[in-house]
Amino acid sequence: MIEHPDGTRTPVIDASVHIFAASNKDLRGFLREPFKSRGFPDYEMDWYGAPGGEYAPGTEGPQRQYPGSDPDVVAGHLFDDRGVDVAILHPMTRGVMPDRHLGSALAAAHNEILVSRWLDHSAHGERFRGTIRVNPDDIAGALREIDRWKDHPRVVQIGVPLQSRELFGKPQFWPLWEAAVEAGLPVAAHIEVGSGIAASPTPSGVPRVYEHYVSFMACNYLYHLMNMIAEGVFERMPALKFVWADGAADLLTPFIWRMDTFGRPHLEQTPWAPKMPSDYLPDHVYFIQGAMDGPGDTDFAGEWFGFTGKDDMVMYGSSYPHWQHNDLSVPHALSAEQRDKLCWRNASLLYGIEVPAVPAAASAH
Predict the structure, then answer these.
(1) Of 142, 152, 147, 223, nearest to 175 (Cα)?
(2) Residue 289: how many other CB atoms lie within 10 Å
(3) I need a surface site. Which of 106, 169, 235, 331 has the fewest CB within 10 A?
(4) Residue in 62, 87, 85, 83 with CA at minimum distance from that of residue 73
């Protein structure tokens, strides 16, 4: 729990904690041939590394293993130092590989690490929840991976890389989203590390430097989302829930306003999606709220959260162990109810997670 300046205490669900294998050699120990001896990119083979270093100091393992790879170190930082009650883990893979079978093998290896080292950890497993990684370029392999892990009691969602070569509303992905609905699991799209195959970060091509990349990459969440609405995915699958796991809630309102404005006169052209586009947001769409999202601690932060119903969509995520991993600083202008939704309630409802106690602010509603 965290204590706010007004003296109240609030549970915390950290909805975005990034975990890694200790090294490429370590990861190979979870691969089988012919993939174990194949080449694949390291986590840090990325065109856009943060200028000051990708990871926060002190997040490595005790023998200098990769940051975010040691459950005891991560648990100490999150649970003991930062007041987190439950952490949602996102294993970091390599995006989409040129060889779809290698991509599926890498996802499967990360899932084995997630379950064996983290979710089944004797000391900390009860406070970890996991994201099973699947390869959207290999639907058959993804369905097998979902079937393998969907019944694990601490698996709470399915993860796909944001850097897809196709928009997620297209019909080739529908069997994957239908399997997620059948398993009762949300789908989380996350910006991947490494240098897999991907479209350009912006519609106009490749940005030059890191600050351009990190500013514009989140726009891809909106392109996927608007395509899913236009293709009728949420109309076809009313129980589907999607988490955009690297922000972009601050972009949602102007984008969806434009989509409503241009869509209103032309709804007859999309009989498979007959509602106003914004009507498909509630109970379908969620965003991780990180350090660089939104207006910050301003007087209009509460009003901004209320636009487009964002206060029911956002969930706090630290992005630990990356450099921007943020202590939970709640804007002073948020109402007590908005604060609870951000800190724990939205994630609790989405993932079915019981928190240690119900805060006083929530008990009045």
Answers:
(1) 142
(2) 26
(3) 235
(4) 62
Write the CA distances from 192 to 30, 109, 148, 185, 271, integer angstroms. Answer: 20, 16, 23, 20, 35
- Between CA 15 and CA 156 the distance in angstroms is 11
Which of the four CATH numbers 3.20.20.140, 3.50.50.60, 3.30.420.10, 3.40.190.150 does domain 2-351 have?
3.20.20.140
pLDDT at 245: 92
Distance CA 269, CA 265 (A): 9
> Where are the domains positioned within the chain?
2-351
What value does the CA radius of gyration of the chain take, rounded to a whole number of Å? 20
Q: For the chain, first and last CA: distance in Å? A: 20
Q: Give pTM, 2 decimals.
A: 0.91
Strand positions, DSSP E, the chain: 2-3, 9-10, 13-19, 86-91, 128-133, 155-161, 187-190, 242-244, 285-289, 314-316
What are 19-65's pLDDT values in tens digits?
Answer: 999 998 999 999 999 999 998 888 776 667 777 777 888 888 788 88
